[in-house]
Amino acid sequence: GKLLSNTLTPNRTRTFLEYIQTKLWNVVREDKNFYSVCYNFYIKKSLERIKKYLNKLGKETDIETIINGDKIPSAEALIEQLSLRDIYSDTKTYYHGDFILDNIIDTSKGYSLIDWRQDFGGELEFGDVYYDLAKFNHNLIFNHDIVNKELYTVKDTSEGISVDILVSKRLLECREVFRTFLEENGYDYKRVEILTGMIWINMAPLHEYPLSKFLFNFGKYNLNKALQA
User: Using an 8 Å Cβ cutoff, are 170 and 9 in contact?
Assistant: First the structure.
């Protein structure tokens, strides 16, 4: 087969998402203990990743920053703003864990998923479907082809920091189909956007400068935007 990153179109986006909905995300379990799993996976891990990023810079805490003209709170303050409704859940599903286009093989018989995440906060069988949705959303903007060509910018200016990235028109059209799919299937788009911003912040310490700086500030900017929506 071929990587979905090379074959995805707006029409195929809907077909693909409907396929995954019936094959993977339709297995649902309610579990009150899943709240604590989500806390560890999202909040605790994010704070650890922020600390790891700041340690690489020789800093102890983040500060309020002007990013793309907007006043953005520190990364720690943004995490503190997250409410129970925003990212915690008592519902778990089958999930992939690194649900990006390069981990999906488009074949004549359907789709094959590779490079599954080993667990979700210690859960070996189930995870949060919203993490898959956020990973997919993130990859429609931040994809390997664009990043490998270094088609992104992060600049210090007299007014603060400027961040931007080139985005494929084809993938933007796919993203509109994705949002419609979320709305039609009762998913919370704001929650997906919040987790997408968190994903970028969490990725920052795993990369080297300047990509690390871009991810951290791009994540803060978009997380704040999602929280204010």
Answer: yes
69 forms beta bridges with none
> In angstroms, rounded to a whole number, what is the distance separating the alpha carbons of residues 164 and 215?
10
Phi, psi of 162 (to 5 degrees): -115, 130
CA distance 100 to 89: 22
Q: Which residue has the tokens 């087969």?
A: 1
83 pLDDT band, cuts 50/70/90, is confident
* Best CA proximity match to 121, nearest among 131, 111, 134, 113: 131
Only one residue has tokens 């994010």, namely 46
Q: Answer for the pair 61, 110: CB distance below 8 angstroms, yes or no.
A: no
Q: Does the model's pTM come out above 0.85?
A: yes
DSSP structure class, residue 186: T
pLDDT in tens, 166-207: 999 999 999 999 999 999 999 999 999 999 999 999 999 999
Of 105, 106, 127, 103, nearest in space to 116 by CA: 103
The answer, yes or no, to whether the previous bond of 210 is cis (omega within 30 of 0) is: yes
